[in-house]
């Protein structure tokens, strides 16, 4: 290292320690630790962007009015982002020249409406540039999606930061497939702290939205799966007339024919009635570990909502990247920091990830 840059680094470290001293308030030791990395907390943006959650709510409401099915996407997003390693918005990243990203693989088939999430991000950026992470926007929009469709309001913590990488090849080790055995499904969720009633409740998200024929034809051709309710089969055959669906034609079946736009416990009555579309849906209603909870949720929407909210919260807190955003918001010597933003990763050890400027791309490093 040239001596001038060594001096610069020394100067920065000195500056940094000085301001750390100046900013220290007389609080208990454990609170000071919190200040270094508060982790996830309620209303994380209360000082840095007090209106953040309200902007997200408002935008989600407006977007839902115009494009109802974007609410399904927001709900599915939280599963595909948070269950895969970390709630770090890696789901939203585009592929790079070197790396195929998560959203572009077969397991993510049918994921859509990412541009509306980008709209929310833009609205937040207009008020508070560079402050609110895509990971938090993804999680909070999923919450708004649930509310828009008539589900429960779930209080959630914030403070997630954005990852810089998305790797398609890790998807399969985290996300169960549509025909996975219940043992594998329960195992995968248990690994992130979600128990059996929690899994049963989360799959209740299949009370809304759609499933493309590519995920269903193996239950219809060459023979109809005898486990399917015969009353439901003609409808499925009508919607999926070809054993090998034309990949360009958008052919799908609604997950819940009865109340497709309402987030409710009708899903459980459907699967008990052998009208579950996916193999995993059907198995949820037949496996002896899950069936008792399916029955309970079919009877009580309150019990479904309570368990869903609990499991959704655990999912939303899976292994987040956290750190002190406030590092960048100290007004004292703010300009100095602005000059040295790119140096911060060297000496702010507790902070992981970044606040992406655009949700589909990691920030450029200089
Ligand atoms: C064992 C676990 C799961 C499996 C195997 C699974 C699989 C699938 C599949 C194959 C589709 C159809 C996609 C398409 O054809 O467009 C789908 C849709 C959906 N999934 Fe799941 N899922 C699981 C768990 C979850 C969880 C935990 C949530 C959210 C909490 C969720 C939310 C949704 C939603 C909302 C849709 C409808 C999406 C739309 O209409 O665009 N799923 N899921
Ligand atoms: C599950 O379905 C996929 C196709 O989507 C297929 O390749 C795989 O073999 C199936 N697995 C099982 C266990 O049936």
From TrEMBL:
Q: Name one GO biological process term.
A: response to oxidative stress
Q: Which InterPro entries match?
A: Haem_peroxidase, Haem_peroxidase_sf, Peroxidase_pln, Secretory_peroxidase
Co-factor(s): heme b; Ca(2+)
Any idea which positions bind Ca(2+) 2? 256, 259, 264
**Ligand binding (heme b):** 206
Q: Which cysteines are joined by disulfide bonds?
A: 49-128, 82-87, 213-240
Gene Ontology MF, one: metal ion binding
Q: What class of enzyme is it?
A: oxidoreductase
Its UniProt entry gives the catalysed reaction(s) as:
2 a phenolic donor + H2O2 = 2 a phenolic radical donor + 2 H2O
Subcellular location(s): the record lists: Secreted
| Keywords, in A-Z order | Biological rhythms, Calcium, Disulfide bond, Glycoprotein, Heme, Hydrogen peroxide, Iron, Metal-binding, Oxidoreductase, Peroxidase, Secreted, Signal
Binding of substrate occurs at 176
Q: What is its EC number?
A: 1.11.1.7
Question: Which residues are involved in binding Ca(2+) 1?
Answer: 81, 84, 88, 90, 102
- Where mainly found? secreted
**Chain positions of site Transition state stabilizer:** 76
Record bears the keyword NAD:
no
Family (UniProt) = Belongs to the peroxidase family. Classical plant (class III) peroxidase subfamily.
**Name of the protein this chain belongs to:** Peroxidase
Organism, by scientific name, is Trapa incisa
